[in-house]
Structures are given as C-alpha cells and as structure tokens.
Input
Amino acid sequence: MERKNAWNTYEEADLVQVNRIAEQYRQFISDCKTERECAVRIREMAEAAGYVSLEKAVREEGSLQPGDKVYAVHKKKLVILFHIGTEPMERGMNILGAHIDSPRLDIKQNPLYEDGEMALLETHYYGGIKKYQWAAIPLALHGTVVKKDGSTVEIAVGEQPGDPVFGISDLLIHLSSEQLQKKAAVVVEGENLNVIVGSRPLKDTEEKEKIREALLGILKEQYGIEEEDFLSAELEAVPAGAARDFGLDRSMIMGYGQDDRICAFTSLLAQLEVQDPAYTSVCLLTDKEEIGSMGATGMQSRYFENVTAEVMQLSGQYSELALRRCLQNSHMLSSDVSAAFDPNYASAFEKKNTAYLGRGMVFNKYTGSRGKSGSNDACAEYIGQLRGIMDGAGVCWQTAELGKVDQGGGGTIAYITANYGMDVIDSGVALLNMHSPWEVSSKADIYEAYRGYGAFLKARWD
Output
C-alpha cells in the first residue's frame, strides 16, 4: 500500500505551520550539538512552558495534582518531563522516548601532541560512523572541562563567524594509490582521526615541542585550563556550522545530529503543548543510545523507573505494585530515525517496505538485524490502535523496515522499555545520510511527527 506524500495535503495555512516548526527545529539543532547543550535548552523550554524541577518538588515536600508539570535532569545529559494526567498512574502513561546523543568524535583524556610542525588532538569516535566522512571537513569543539577544584569551563569554538575551525587531514589524491585500494572501513582508521588545532610555535623558548606549548598557553590564557584538565573533560569534535535549508524548494533540512534530535525536538514540542491529558504524558530524552544505552544516563539505567516512583510518591499513588502496574500498562513511542529511500543506493532497500522523504512520520514494527535480532517486535493490536489514532488526527504516516532483510539493521531503546511489559513501537522521521556529519530530513516529516506525537499523548486506551 503506497502512502500519500504529505506535501500534497497542505493548504497555505498548513505550510505556514510546517515552516514555523521547521525553523524552530533548525535553530535547535544548530545551537545544541552535544547532549549537555540539548539538556540545557530542553530545561529552558520546559520552564518557559510552566514545568518545575522535580528535585524542588521533593525538597519542598509538595504534592502533585492532575495538570501539574515537572521535569528531572540526570547528570546534565538525560531529561524526563511529566505532565500529570487525570487517570491514576497505575493505569499507565503515554510515553515519548528519544535520545539526544549523536555520533561524534570524543577528545581523548591525554590528547594533545605535536608532530610534523603541527599540534593535534587525539580522538575516540563515538557511535557508528563511516570514519572517512570526518576527514577534510570543518569541525568545532564543544564540551565541558571540570577542574580538580570542581569549577567548570564551557567550550564552544568553531560556530561563530569569527571563530577558528579545526579538522582532520586527508591524503592528497596524488599520493593515494595505496589508500584507495583499501576497504572503505579502513581508508581512514580510528587512530588517524586526529584533529589539527595549530601550527605556530613559541618564540624564544627552550621547550622542545614549541607548537604544543603555544597551544597550552592559549588554553591557559583564554580558558584558564591546564593540560591535566583534559583528564576530567568531556570535549567533542562535531561538524562546524548551522543547519541549512536543503534543496532549491527549501523542502528539506541538512544538519548535524538529526539522529536523534529530530525526534527529541518534535517529542518535546508535543509534550510542552499537550493540554489536560487523561494519562500522564511523559517525554523521555535519554543519552548513550548510540553506544548501547549503557551507563548512568543511558536507558539501561534505573533512572527512569526511579523518577517515575518519585512522581507517584508525590502524587500519593506510590507502592511497589502500583509502580510495576504503571510501567506495564504504559504505551510508548520509541522515537528514533529511520532510513529514507535513497535512489542513489536503491539496491539496499526493498521499495514496498521502506520510508520515503515527505510521506510523514514512520512506524517500524521491528528493527534489529537480519532475523530481527535485538528487536522489539510490536504487537498487532497496538499497531491497530495507533492506526486509528493517527488517521483520526489526520496525520500522514508510513511504515518501514531498515533496509533489506540481509542488508544490515539497527536498534533503538524500544526493547529496553518493553522489558517492563508495556506496548512499545519504534516511530520517528526518515533521514538521508544517517550517521554522517550532515544528515537530511524533510520539513513535512518533521511537522507530521510533531502532529503524530501530539495525537499520541492525548490518546485513551479504554
């Protein structure tokens, strides 16, 4: 069954809204290139919409009533928002879950060295990337440096018009005969993803590594940090520059980090705008998905469960059994991106079961790889209910798989929350160039995802 293109359904008033949401999103991903930066902006948007800190509510020993809105931030990288519904939480919640981490290059703890009249920073790539795509493009440095006295320094260099940028060199074509015989996976190897940061030596010094020392002097003068401060820093090299309109018709957006900030932003916007929900609505924006959702800020931690218990306690609804029932009776959209059909690489896709740019938000009954390995496989009854919800709200949507059966695959956080016994399905927005430095999305799909998430949060499951 072929789904309609969302652009063909829009009137002029709809196009105004499409462009409004797209511009808000474009600005969000331009400004927020790390999970920490996302968490800061999300908290600001939540507070502007009337949300209050759960920590404050607990400290003041207040209580939560239907209509109240609270948020929790964990280690400055994971954010959860709750809008308390009129139904008892034991009956379940409507949950939008996405992740705010993206593939990137992390600066190592002992990164700075000098070689060949240049100063460089060693990196360790984060998430699944094609390493060769990160050479010969402008990079920016973002992150936080924590000194041993506990003070912090925030760094973001390479985004403003007057800022310098950084980069990883590539071998010139004239000397590349051996390099070009290698498989793509090793054309550029991980240990060669070293970011060039300077080439000007100190004068009048006996130091052996004059360029390296010059860079340390700049760090000391401009940021007040020493070389050993790299040991307790989280610095990321990311593509420099703002997201841009893509295509002569400006129908698309090209930008870094759309996996999965495109779903995080549209989920957040829907959460902030939902009014008087019957079931408690939740927006869960997590970290570490790109490396298996491990760690204290990943979905495999107990943080979501613990915070839900806190909310139930403040609502006067907590017991261990009630918490278990709440989680099991919940419904969730695990919001992550899907692969858009690419006519340049058509052989990787099965046309009847792939997503297309412009056809609206995507539902993936299962992800995983090959024999659905590692997948949450959503049940037919839940999908039937979602079909009714989306069609009833006039949302353009489509279904897809992640490429041909034996081609590859991928995973999301869906299987983790499904461990509670709740209904979960993967949903999101289709991208071209997924996991590359510059991904491409359709403005229509962004708008339909926002509308679809809003319809889901208002759903009843009686």
Q: What stands out?
A: The two ends are 29 Å apart (CA to CA).
